[in-house]
Amino acid sequence: MSPLRYITASLWQFRRVHLAVAAGVAVATAVITGALLVGDSVRGSLEALMLDGLGRIDQALISDRFFRGELAEELQRSDAFR
Questions:
Q1: From CA 5, how far away is CA 11, in angstroms rounded?
Q2: Residue by residue, what is the 3-state secondary structure of 36-55?
Q3: CA–CA separation, 26 vs 6, rounded Å?
Q4: The overall pTM is greater than 0.85
Q5: What value does the CA radius of gyration of the chain take, rounded to a whole number of Å?
Q6: Contacts of 67 (CB under 8 A, 6+ apart)
Q7: DSSP run (H or E) holding 5
Q8: How many Å apart are CA 45 and CA 53, to the nearest integer?
């Protein structure tokens, strides 16, 4: 028996198993692709909502301690923050 004939006979003998495996792979691929597309869409939507919620905010001041109340007025007057 030649190798090609052996492979063909094996595929024919176990055709149901091969079809079930192929169907399972197709379904799993469709599910994973759909989840990736939906996840990307949700990420984009959430980013758009976040940016809309921020409004016209260009910068944020983060500090590990308190700062003077006059600092906001000084920052508004400075040219570095315009």
A1: 10
A2: HHHHHHHHHHHHHHHHHHHC
A3: 26
A4: no
A5: 30
A6: 61
A7: helix 3-13
A8: 12
Asked whether the predicted pLDDT for residue 5 surpasses 70, the reply is: yes
The confidence score (pLDDT) of residue 67 equals: 83
Q: What's the mean pLDDT when you consider all of the chain?
A: 88
| C-alpha dihedral (15, 20, 26, 30), degrees to nearest 10 | 170
Q: Residues 18, 11: contact at Cβ < 8 Å?
A: yes
Do residues 39 and 47 lie in contact, with contact meaning Cβ atoms separated by under 8 Å?
Answer: no
> Which tokens sit at 29?
């691929």
**Mean pLDDT along residues 69-76:** 81
- Give the residue-averaged pLDDT of 2-25: 94
Token pair recorded at residue 42: 């949700």
Alpha carbon separation from 1 to 6, 11, 13 (Å, rounded): 6, 15, 15
Q: Which two tokens stand for residue 54?
A: 């921020």
Q: Which two tokens stand for residue 80?
A: 């570095």
